[in-house]
Design goal:
This protein is of the alpha+beta class. It has a single domain, classed as Jelly Rolls (Sandwich), CATH 2.60.120.260. Helices cover about 25% and strands about 35% of the residues. Helix 1 packs antiparallel against helix 3. About 0% of the residues have low confidence.
Length: about 220
């Protein structure tokens, strides 16, 4: 009888552990990955798209092998990156707004991107807008190498839509350099156990109860 009780207890413990693991597990979803690979070098003005991003105002310059003079690689990045201020000197632009083409709906997100200085001797400030991140400013020296910036647990509320927005003031063609934008939607909602799992748990508990009742009856028979 003792061995039966021990076996039932082990079964229930395993079932509880399995259900606990299922409840705590979650799978995050990568909803955007953009490294600007394959984009032709040159200036892109308002209304044009650069892979999964759109120039909403001003201009960006895609720095590639034909026009970057090695700036992306010199900053520790890949051969292609984005100069967030692509406006030519003397232009009337007061800044560049570079946005994700897609809108993202309600949820919790983790945003990552690489940012470096212009590599041309001038410091710049880039502003980020996304979800409840309303205006996060990143100021970099001109010789700053690429670093990865992380904005975790960014919330987009119910009924809202948001785009990733990078804003770079100025119009001198010497903006901060952007690369490797990655957005992950988090899935922290615990799933409901499947009916079959709950049935197994119920069966295991019933087995323990039956074993305890048989043991109690056996004891009463001996004492009688």
């Amino acid at each position: 009888m003792t061995s039966i009780l021990k076996n039932c207890s082990r079964i229930v413990a395993l079932l509880i552990f399995g259900i606990g693991s299922a409840l705590s597990a979650h799978a995050d979803t990568v909803v955007l990955t953009e490294g600007f690979d394959g984009v032709a070098g040159g200036n892109y003005f308002a209304g044009t798209t650069v892979n999964q991003f759109t120039v909403q105002s001003g201009a960006v310059e895609v720095l590639a092998s034909n026009n970057d003079f090695g700036r992306c690689v010199a900053a520790g990045g890949s051969p292609i990156c984005i100069n967030l201020d692509g406006a030519l000197p003397g232009s009337t632009f007061t800044g560049t707004t570079f946005v994700s083409t897609a809108f993202f709906g309600p949820g919790t997100y983790d945003l990552f991107f690489d940012l470096a200085g212009s590599q041309r001797g001038q410091s710049n400030t880039t502003s980020l807008f996304f979800g409840n991140v309303l205006n996060s400013e990143i100021t970099l020296a001109g010789n700053a190498a690429f670093s990865t910036y992380s904005f975790l647990n960014v919330v987009i509320g119910p009924g809202e839509l948001s785009r990733i927005v990078f804003f770079q003031p100025g119009s001198d063609n010497m903006g901060n350099l952007l690369d490797n934008v990655r957005l992950v939607q988090r899935d922290d909602v615990a799933p409901v156990p499947e009916p079959a799992t709950m049935l197994l748990l119920g069966t295991g508990l019933a087995g323990v109860g039956a074993a305890l009742r048989r043991k109690r009856i056996a004891k009463q028979g001996v004492s009688g």
